[in-house]
Write a structure and sequence with these properties.
The protein has 15 helices and eleven strands. By secondary structure, the protein is α/β, with parallel strands linked by helices. It has three domains: 19-79, no CATH class; 144-356, Aspartate Aminotransferase, domain 2, CATH 3.40.640.10; 370-499, Alpha-Beta Complex (Aspartate Aminotransferase, domain 1), CATH 3.90.1150. Strands 1-7-6-5-4-2-3 form a seven-stranded mixed sheet, with helices on both faces. α9 (246-255) links the parallel β4 and β5. α3 packs antiparallel against α10 (348-385), α5 runs parallel beside α10 (348-385) and α6 packs across α7 (191-198). The structure holds pyridoxal-5'-phosphate (PLP). Pyridoxal-5'-phosphate binds at residues 94-95, 154-156, 189, 191, 234, 263, 265-266, 287, 302, 304.
Length: 517
């Protein structure tokens, strides 16, 4: 039977009001017990300790609901949402949406972890410090770097941290006034330009060669100068192309007196294969919430440790986690440190999840992860290229890709008028996550970037390709069906025109009431 084991899809559709429209005045979900007189006698009335002019005169206008009403409301909303555990998720390239094993969740949520407080005395948190220290050692082994900090809470935050370290290094050498430029590439994640710009650098962006998809060595030579502070580059690129000139780039930047920071957020294809520290990079970062199987933070609780060579360890954020042979401790005595980039040690639960994942996989498991992730990607790539309207930029010189691939629907658009945004609105009708397109600027026209990771089965890949093929056929035969999609989701096509009219925007319920009554 075709598609054995797969399901057709229709999302749950509730006419669910927003929470401010639910409930009734005075309704409660949980009654807080009255404070006992003995406690009151000692602590007095907590409210009275708030200065009079700061105290509310009227209660806040919050929704008032019973507990079952709250539960029902949020369960309904969750049922209308596409979930990472409920559908096929192979289309979100550069995000490495691999499966997050439940056993790691159980560990991260165990009372021994959730009950910790970051201000506890070191002697009472030896376990978590040991986990942080050991994970650091493993990442050094994986990357060829000498020391890591877990403070950054996401990839862009890590790139910013590395930009601050580059700045601190040049300041330490008395060259910061002269070295104010960071070189990057347009096929790197855009935070490789944005984060150093936020750290005060000017950005020089190189574009890929038309034939190879890699930047041109001569263009890099022309870009370096006495003003070069460093290069910040993603490798493999978000196009799935590994730039094998990387050693040459590193040498060029070093000769010019700059440092090289490699964004290793796309490392899922390199684990146990390439150690960026061995080929001369000075700094790097990983996204634990991608390659090391911890949940994605989406600007929230991710974890993106930065790793540096010994020479730059003194600039890492404080405190670092150290081991004196008998106990673990925090080292704040680091006068050259860039300071803190976040409170405490970043997202400790993600450190635990990644620790558990690496422990489960072992070195061979990590290698196999990369092998399967690359194999899955190229299998899917081949299947997608058989579909009418799909093409592969730089395909002649780079027919195979690493962790993900940036394909183009330019031909489909020219022949049918259907664009990637239309396809994305239709693909969700099949219980499949929409595809990531590309970061700005779109140098690949009508781009989409699948990344199956090692978690997808062959059946998932076949199903995804089959859905894509069906949508392509629809584009050529019944484009209106795609233009009016989605049809099977909790909501149908959203009118986006108000989003370009600031007069209609309302970021909160109160703002909405003010504007729309
Ligand atoms: C290569 C690369 N670098 C950096 C980032 C930024 O990571 P974050 O979203 O955690 O800030 C991403 C995110 O997808 C990425 O793909």
């Amino acid at each position: 039977m075709k598609n054995k084991g797969t399901t057709t899809y229709h999302a749950v559709r509730w006419r669910e009001p927003i929470i401010y429209e639910l409930g009734r005045k005075g309704r409660r979900g949980f009654m807080i017990p009255k404070v006992e007189p003995e406690i009151k006698a000692v602590a007095r009335d907590a409210v009275l300790s708030i200065p009079d002019k700061m105290r509310r005169k009227t209660p806040p206008e919050w929704p008032e609901l019973s507990e079952p009403e709250v539960v029902r409301h949020f369960i309904r909303l969750s049922q209308q949402t596409f979930g990472v555990d409920s559908g096929i998720n192979v289309g979100v390239g550069t995000c490495t949406m691999k499966y997050n094993p439940k056993v790691n969740e159980a560990l991260a949520r165990s009372p021994g972890i959730t009950g910790l407080h970051p201000l506890q005395d070191e002697s009472t948190v030896q376990g978590i410090l040991e986990i942080i220290y050991k994970l650091q050692e493993w990442l050094c082994e994986i990357s060829g770097m000498d020391k890591f900090s877990f403070q950054p809470r996401g990839g862009a935050h890590a790139v910013f941290t590395n930009a601050c370290i580059i700045r601190a290094f040049h300041k330490y050498n008395g060259e910061l006034d002269q070295r104010d430029e960071i070189i990057t590439t347009v096929v790197s994640h855009p935070c490789n330009a944005a984060a150093p710009a936020s750290a005060g650098f000017k950005i020089v962006t190189l574009y890929p060669d038309e034939k190879t998809g890699c930047i041109n060595v001569e263009a890099l030579k022309a870009a370096v100068s006495k003003r070069t502070a460093g290069m910040m580059i993603t490798n493999p690129y978000d196009t799935g192309i590994f730039d094998s000139n990387i050693i040459e780039y590193i040498n060029i930047i070093h000769e010019a007196g700059g440092l090289v920071a490699i964004d290793q957020a796309n490392a899922n294809c390199l684990l146990s294969r390439v150690r960026i520290g061995d080929v001369g990079a000075d700094l790097c970062h990983f996204n634990l919430h991608k390659s090391f199987s911890t949940p994605h933070g989406s600007c929230g609780p991710g974890s993106a440790p930065v790793g540096v060579k010994e020479e730059f360890a003194k600039f890492l954020p404080i405190p670092t986690v150290e081991f004196d042979g008998s106990k673990y401790y925090l080292d704040y005595d680091r006068p050259h440190s860039i300071g803190k980039v976040a409170e405490f040690h970043g997202v400790a639960q993600n450190v635990v999840r990644a620790y558990a994942w690496i422990l489960t996989m072992g070195a061979e498991g990590l290698r196999e992860t990369s092998e399967v992730a690359v194999l899955n990607n190229n299998y899917l790539l081949k299947k997608l290229l058989e579909i009418r309207g799909v093409s592969l930029p730089w395909g002649k010189s780079r027919p195979f890709r690493m962790q993900d691939v940036r394909l183009s629907l330019e031909k489909l658009k020219e022949e049918t008028g259907i664009r990637i945004d239309d396809v994305n609105r239709r693909i969700v009708d099949f219980g499949v996550q929409r595809c990531f397109t590309s970061h700005e600027p779109w140098i690949v026209p009508e781009p989409f970037t699948p990344e199956p990771t090692e978690s997808a089965s062959k059946e998932d890949l076949d199903r995804f390709a089959e859905i894509f093929s069906r949508i392509s056929t629809e584009a050529y035969t019944n484009p209106e069906k795609i233009k009016n999609a989605p049809h099977n989701c909790a909501i149908s096509r959203v009118n986006l025109s108000p989003s370009s009219d600031p007069k209609k925007w309302a970021m909160t319920w109160r703002a909405y009431i003010k504007k729309h009554g």
